[in-house]
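Researcher: I'd like a structural prediction for the single chain below. Treat it as a standalone chain; there are no partners to consider.
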Amino acid sequence: MYEFEYQKPGSLSEAASALKSADDGSLLAGGQTLLPTMKQRLASPSDLVDLAGVPDMSGISVDGGNIVVGAMTTHAAVAGSADVQSNIPGLAKLAGCIGDPQVRHRGTIGGSIANNDPAADYPGACLGLGATIVTDSREISADDFFVGLFETALNDGEIITAVRFPIPETSDYAKFPQPASRFSLVGAFVARTSSGARVAITGAGQEGVFRVPEMEAALNSNFAAGAVASISVPSDDLNSDIHGSAEYRAHLVTVMAKRAVDGCG
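Model: Treating it as a single chain, here is the predicted structure.
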């Protein structure tokens, strides 16, 4: 690991200022990706700006028809929240199957979606629920937030402060995990909302998380697992590696979507 400056600001404005003034600064949220990357010398930021000391960036609340999750809220807190479990059980389930207990107690929702790993779970929940990502300067819909492999719509120096999840009629998440890392080989988040069904797939796409309009249309006509059983996605743009070919992932997309629909009850 290379030498770097460690900063722990006490407010959001101080964090933004520290990040702006750094030569090549990085925000430290949970650190579950950033720190291992630095240890492998694949990243060498000049400054680490730790958000752990910034108040009001963690916690979960019910705000009208939404569940609002602070960006520094850990996966374990989301999984164990009674508000999340009762209102968006699919989100609680997803958070509970991220990594292992150590990762769940250190990793944060803001860090996960800002990193936008194609095999991460939270992008599936954000896109599947039509969430809104709140930053220190604006609000971004999930449909516009995830723009490519490890890429988001965030501007340089922009800081995620919270994620606002609309409460759906029902939701579920089905995941086929990579056994060693527990990352998603393929994960399907399905939600039935007042504006229609949403199906988001993570782990499979070369460009990261994506929706499946054909499945959504079928579920809008008949919200049952059988409605998506014969729908497959092309394998051309799917990941292929030692853990599974693109064709295998395409098969899993249908299987996981069916399971998620079944889990919606």
